[in-house]
Please model this.
Amino acid sequence: MKLITVAGPPSSGKTSMLLRVIDWLKEQGLKAGVVKFDCVASKDDERYRAKGVPVLLGLAGNLCPDHYFVTNIEACARWGQSLELNILISESAGLCNRCSPFIRHALAVCVIDNLSGANTPTKMGPLLKQADIVAITKGDIVSQAEREVFQYQVRKVNARAEILHINGLTGQGKERLGALLAQAEDIDDLDGRKLRFSMPAAVCSYCLGETRIGHDYQMGNVKSIAIPDVSRPEVS
Amino acid sequence: MMEDIQSITILGGHSKSGEVEDVTLRLVPGDLVAVVGPTGSGKSRLLADIEYIAQRDTPSGRCILINDQPPAPEIRFDMGRKLIAQLSQNMNFVMDATVAEFITLHAECRDINLGETGLEELIQGVVTQANRLTGEPIVPDTPLTALSGGQSRSLMIADTAILSDSPIVLIDEIENAGIDRRQALDILVQNQKIVLMATHDPILALLAHSRIVLKSGGIADVLESDQDESALLEELQKADAAILAVREKLRRGERLAGSAFRYAEF
Model:
């Protein structure tokens, strides 16, 4: 079974794009399923189910979503194998832009949309930088020149990835993405495999449920913001 | 490499119902082709197939050749973006930049290296050209997001003609743009490009040297324009100019006589 990790900001069009690509994979005789990792709520599982795609929904709740991902992905992979899937897609919203829920040797796809602003690619960090494929969506609602500029900004952050333009509404571009997914490496066992990038440092008292503000309540990993000394001018 | 486009060829696929499209259409620089057919007949699909340089892997099953050959994957999925410029109905700008900043950024990503003065001239050139197409002038300091629909489209067309310099231009429904369409076409065609435009507008359709007729997702016919049609085009252009003149008077707040529509004089 192939394991593909797909990540991108909320509402970037991941699910719409994947539904189109899964259609294409089905036409090629490949069986794909999805694990959707989200934070507090998601209805995306219903969209997959309506199309007959096997789907698992995992809500991280009050846990860091990407920590939740990494502690559960092995069991999800076993689920995929038990259903005899050819391809299991792990879909998650890269919520803090610090994590990249990408695993070494498992094909990693980053999804971003043209509407997110020209400087967004530089803000995304490992989520974009570590991807093998960058799928850019919503190209149909901006000008060609903006598409070019946006792609250029993406290229500056990730020089290595194949950049694809995908339209989640019409499915334009799904064939190339589908072909790349179908060619991905088979991964039969995740035990001992490595993430592409370390998770954020933990744990502080707030990770453990503290809600009060103040020095006395801070423990563990605490980092102070640099504030320059400002000598106040005399008020005349 | 971009100057090396000698032709594109459309090899037929099939219509929505699976009917075979018996078409081989080879277009060369300077060709202006209209794509006509009712809404839903597949005009946008045809343009999308060309933009994607389809290799029998889209729903239509069409194949697009560049210089009589299938393109290498890097041209198809990367460089292809610079080979083909697309002007669609959706030409909204969302980026947080001024017109000048945007043109600078676009030039940078097209690898156009100009000095300070060269860049200044390019910005002026694009803005001047855009202002020929619309009644509401753009200045380089205007934020992109403050442009009206007509201004956005004018800027987009000027950018395509001057800066992008893509040898193939695809236009979808330019008549909805609220700009001088005839001028826009002239600007685009003058640089020996292959231009395909989907249109419902009789003047634009007849301005084209040939037109592709679409029916239920398939190419039903390819017609060459003839002398009769050229004569008809002249009549239509006179009528169009007369309507524009009436519109202009109305915009200026004038009252019109019942005989205000006279097009023989144009």
Notes: Chain A touches chain B through 26 residues (CB under 8 Å). The mean pLDDT of chain A is 90.
